[in-house]
Amino acid sequence: MNILHNQLAPLLVLAFLLITFVISVVEKFADWKGTITYISETFQNTFIKSFIKPLIASLVFLEILTVYFVSIGMYELYFYQEKETALLGCTFSCFSILYMLIGQRIAKDYPGATSLTVYFILSVFGVYLLN
After folding, report:
1. Which structural domain, as residue segments, surrounds residue 14?
2. What's the pLDDT tens digit per position in 55-73?
3. DSSP states of the chain as a string?
4. What total of structural domains would you count in the chain?
5. Distance of CA 113 to the CA centre of its chain
6. What is the value of pTM for the model shown?
7. How far, in Å, CA of 101 to CA of 112, rounded?
């Protein structure tokens, strides 16, 4: 129980990020066509409208990397008190959120960009706790 007590805050941050990104990836794969349609409509008046599919694919790749490193990092942190993989997970989470932020700003979806702030702060907090 002492291990859990010593690493409770980073484990909770990692659990939140894991839930967030797993659901995000599953939603994209479950309704790929709908995702492409929605994002294409969002960016129809921007210079990136022709690059939607590769941009979404690269976002999904970043999110999968996040899920991988966060899940393995949670395991290693809990059982071995190793922080490096979990730190990578939080770092990839930051990159993923920054990637989405750029998209929201290009689309001029300022409320959407603002809502990413909470996720970014939590990801940076995870980096802080694990660094």
Report:
1. 2-130
2. 999 999 999 999 999 999 9
3. -HHHHHTHHHHHHHHHHHHHHHHHHHHHHHTHHHHHHHHHHHTTTSTTGGGHHHHHHHHHHHHHHHHHHHHHHHHHHHHH---HHHHHHHHHHHHHHHHHHHHHHHTT-HHHHHHHHHHHHHHHHHHHHH-
4. 1
5. 14
6. 0.93
7. 8
